[in-house]
């Protein structure tokens, strides 16, 4: 396979365009070179990036693929007319039919995140991240009534990254609490969680996978042994069943999939987006 | 403005589609109701969601907007032919021209994250999150040679959320270290950072904004006073200038914008995507 380059051109961070472009490219077996060019928001910068793309296209002997999110129509026009790559306009492709449908024109406001740093939505996201960090791994039982979700599960079942993802992507205040051998002996969830059971959500994991993960951390420990992993997982699952806590297995799921399932199932009141 | 509903229909989490759809809708002044329907991966589920959309469209008297990422052509065909909403097919719109350009057909593989939980990319992201957590706020100087980036700056300048974002979104191992009064007195960056100066990146912030943020945490403290904030910020900036560390101001920037700028400027070797 000869070389081929994919460009992501945006007037903002280009993160949305690149993530979306990647999920489209994942449908193909080819592995092109990726180049991101964020903050392309002046005529000069567009000309510079057009020169770069045209040079690459000539060198490689095949059109570069150019995923574009440019709001300014002047900048977009320069790119579309002068660029020798294959331009995929991710924005206007959908903006134009929506303008017709809504019967109004769009703002042509640059960048999803422009000036967002002072918006309520952004402040809430940062606050959610701070909350989730402060309530990681049962560190604090303070202000649990403010939590939107409390993840529970045995150590290394995926609670921490899922909590942080919920906070960062969705502005959800996600606390997490480990279920530990003491809880299994008492046959009850940690006392501080009892008043908040309705917002608890459990993560479980296949003992074999848990054993692998724990062995990376503490090789050959009792903690990581398959017998102990089997025991803890079985105890945690029966506790969640007994307490009526919804749960899912993180074994074959990414944090995105876990987070999406949690949001679908418990529908926190304050879903940001 | 009458009611209007926007649906995000996906066979996976739908997160990419929703984030991207939101950035398109942000170009319009209308504020439609958002409904996400993830994991729509069977004929039955498609029929159910079509009934829901058609019902909404009838109730509201205007077509629902339906952002769709469905890979399976049978499911997509049902939706396209039977749904009375306005279907915006975010996937095939770009897949089809790319199939022509590449001269190959696409995989029609469902979901960007399917079975990703065991992939190297996913493992690396989780490892980066764990690394960033373990190296938050100068907690550990261990394994700093493994860091891709080390953020430095005064307390509450935005280092923690930016580090976590770099890890979660880009699989970047981002440590962060506070610059504290002791460092300013010694007129030198923390000793453990000295060997790693090339991967340090500074965050600064307007003293007025810093004062606001710190006052939320510790109202009326010396720590939060405008005089102290001015002093710390001036000291930190002159230290970074002296040490030759690149830096930017987080005052009017979101974590996405800060992260994108960092990646553009220091180009860590192992950029995941």
From TrEMBL, chains A, B:
Alphabetized NCBIfam families for the sequence: PRK05339.1 (NF003742)
GO MF entry, a single one: ATP binding
Record key words, sorted: Kinase, Nucleotide-binding, Pyruvate, Serine/threonine-protein kinase, Transferase
Catalyzed reactions per annotation: [pyruvate, water dikinase]-phosphate + phosphate + H(+) = [pyruvate, water dikinase] + diphosphate; [pyruvate, water dikinase] + ADP = [pyruvate, water dikinase]-phosphate + AMP + H(+)
Species per Swiss-Prot/TrEMBL record: Piscinibacter gummiphilus
Entries under Pfam families matching the protein: Kinase-PPPase
EC class: transferase
Role: Bifunctional serine/threonine kinase and phosphorylase involved in the regulation of the phosphoenolpyruvate synthase (PEPS) by catalyzing its phosphorylation/dephosphorylation.
InterPro entries, sorted: Kinase-pyrophosphorylase, PSRP
Organismal lineage: Bacteria, Pseudomonadati, Pseudomonadota, Betaproteobacteria, Burkholderiales
Official protein name in the record: Putative phosphoenolpyruvate synthase regulatory protein
Family to which the UniProt record says this protein belongs: Belongs to the pyruvate, phosphate/water dikinase regulatory protein family. PSRP subfamily.
EC number: 2.7.11.33, 2.7.4.28
UniProt: ADP binding residues: 153-160
């Amino acid at each position: 396979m000869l070389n081929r380059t994919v460009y992501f051109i945006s007037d903002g961070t280009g993160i949305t365009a690149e993530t979306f472009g990647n999920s489209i490219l994942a449908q193909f077996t080819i592995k092109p070179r990726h180049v991101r060019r964020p903050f392309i928001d002046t005529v000069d910068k567009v000309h510079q990036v057009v020169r770069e793309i045209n040079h690459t296209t000539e060198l490689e002997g095949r059109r570069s693929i150019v995923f574009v999110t440019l709001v300014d129509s002047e900048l977009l026009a320069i790119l579309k007319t002068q660029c020798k790559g294959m331009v995929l306009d991710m924005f206007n492709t959908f903006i134009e039919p929506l303008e017709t449908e809504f019967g109004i024109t769009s703002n042509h406001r640059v960048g999803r995140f422009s000036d967002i740093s002072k918006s309520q939505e952004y402040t809430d996201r940062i606050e959610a991240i701070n909350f989730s960090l402060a309530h990681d791994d049962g560190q604090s039982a303070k202000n649990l009534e403010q939590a939107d979700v409390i993840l529970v599960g045995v150590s290394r079942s995926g609670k921490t990254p899922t909590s942080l993802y919920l906070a960062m992507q969705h502005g959800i205040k996600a606390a997490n609490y480990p279920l530990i051998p003491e809880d299994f002996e008492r046959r009850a969830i940690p006392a501080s969680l009892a008043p908040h059971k309705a917002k608890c959500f459990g993560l479980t994991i296949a003992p074999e996978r848990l054993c692998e993960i724990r062995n990376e951390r503490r090789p050959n420990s009792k903690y990581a042994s398959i017998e102990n992993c089997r025991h803890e997982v079985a105890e945690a699952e029966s506790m969640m069943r007994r307490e009526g806590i919804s749960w899912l297995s993180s074994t074959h799921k990414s944090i995105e999939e876990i987070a999406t399932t949690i949001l679908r199932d418990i529908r926190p009141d304050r879903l940001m987006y």
